[in-house]
Design a protein that fits this description.
Elements: E1 4-11, H1 30-42, E2 45-49, H2 50-56, E3 74-78, E4 97-101, E5 113-116, H3 124-133, E6 138-141, H4 145-153, E7 159-164, E8 192-200, E9 203-210
Parallel strand pairs: 1-6, 1-7, 2-3, 2-6, 3-4, 4-5
Antiparallel strand pairs: 7-9, 8-9
Length: 212
């Protein structure tokens, strides 16, 4: 597989990505927001799961405030059952969008292409082959936590970039970057190799390579 997959997220100093209600709160600083939009601009596609769309309704575009003459990457939503709202920002026509459903979902979406991939959940390896066939050579994974874990667990992800903000959220129910079922035993733990560590404003940017 030649398509490069980068996971990018921001977490608090205690490893949380949102409040216990799963509502987002500001973790990134201005320097990190600039970094994220520049990273988006370099990638062919941005991918999120349906829960991120339903909870946060992200635009998944590059802001011209941070990038002059941005080239908008393809927006990809993993939405097995076709639950993306008609008025979601990802369907606003501002950038090419692909909604990925399972094979039994029949829904079509305005301003978006559809890929049917997988019996119940998305077959990630098949999806990456299909995306590669469409000329997508780099994919930026921006959430949510179950999607991030699925790309790590399957060892499809190549790199992880985490911005650690200088706040503490706390709480057992507050989500972490990698959700889902998690590792069942020590053999299932996903190993990372540290590539770099640097201060970014009042936070820290950590870059890892996924060990495969």
């Amino acid at each position: 597989m030649t398509t490069r997959v980068i996971i990018n997220c921001a977490m608090s100093a205690d490893g949380k990505i949102a409040l216990r209600t799963r509502k987002q709160t500001k973790i990134s600083n201005e320097a990190d927001r600039k970094r994220v939009h520049q990273l988006r601009n370099k990638c062919d596609a941005i991918l999120v799961g349906i829960e991120t769309v339903l909870t946060d309704d992200p635009k998944l575009t590059v802001n011209s405030k941070y990038v002059k003459k941005p080239r908008q990457p393809v927006r990809i939503v993993l939405d097995s059952k076709g639950r993306t709202p008609k008025d979601a920002f990802v369907l606003d026509g501002a950038a090419r969008t692909i909604i990925v459903t399972n094979e039994s979902c029949k829904r079509v979406f305005a301003n978006a292409e559809t890929i049917r991939c997988g019996k119940r959940k998305t077959d990630l390896r098949k999806l990456m082959e299909l995306l590669e066939g469409r000329g997508i050579r780099s994919v930026l994974i921006e959430g949510g936590s179950e999607v991030i874990w699925s790309f790590l667990e399957s060892r499809i992800a190549d790199e992880v970039r985490i911005f650690v903000g200088s706040i503490v959220i706390g709480g057992e129910r507050a989500p972490t970057p990698a959700g889902g079922e998690g590792a069942a035993n020590e053999r299932s733990v996903v190993a990372l190799r540290l590539k770099s560590l640097r201060a970014l404003g009042n936070g820290i940017l950590i870059r890892y390579e996924v060990v495969k």
